Amino acid sequence: MARIIRHIWPDASENQAIRVARCESGLNPNTINWRDQHANGPGSFGLFQLARVHTWAWTRSPLELLQPWRNARAALRLYRGHGGTFRRAWVHCSRKVGAR
């Protein structure tokens, strides 16, 4: 899974992205956390544990986020949409692994 993240993410942030994904899912693309509650429904999905609320414009079904390539691309869009910082979208894990 780290290879997929390295392929998609820019060199300057790929190592931090891998650390965040490892914290969020253990780099398991099939991870689903139904306990996460969001405005448009429960669940966080895949490598970066993305919520449907963050990705509804890019996916038809939250289960698409279990595809590692799609999850890593959506995570990069989310990261860029937050001004190139991990701290807004992945608050807990970015602090835990020292990602900015």
Descriptive notes:
By secondary structure, the protein is α+β, with helices and mostly antiparallel strands. The chain has one domain (2-97): Lysozyme (Orthogonal Bundle), CATH 1.10.530.10. The chain is 47% helix and 14% strand. A 3-stranded antiparallel beta sheet has the order 1-2-3. The longest helix is centred in the N-terminal third of the chain and has 15 residues, at 11-25.
Distance between the termini: 21 Å
Instruction: State the helicity in percent bands.
Output: 40-55%
Count every beta strand, where a strand is a DSSP E run of 2 or more residues. 3
The CATH class is identified as: Mainly Alpha
Assembly type of the shown chains? single chain
Anisotropy-based shape: globular
Could you give the order of strands across the largest sheet? Answer: 1-2-3
Topology:
Layout: H1 2-8, H2 11-25, E1 32-38, E2 41-45, E3 50-51, H3 52-55, H4 68-81, H5 91-97
Antiparallel strand pairs: 1-2, 2-3
Short structural summary:
With 100 residues, this protein is of the alpha+beta class. The chain has a single domain, classed as Lysozyme, CATH 1.10.530.10.
List keywords for this structure.
Lysozyme, 3 strands, alpha+beta, globular, 100 residues, 5 helices, three-stranded antiparallel β-sheet
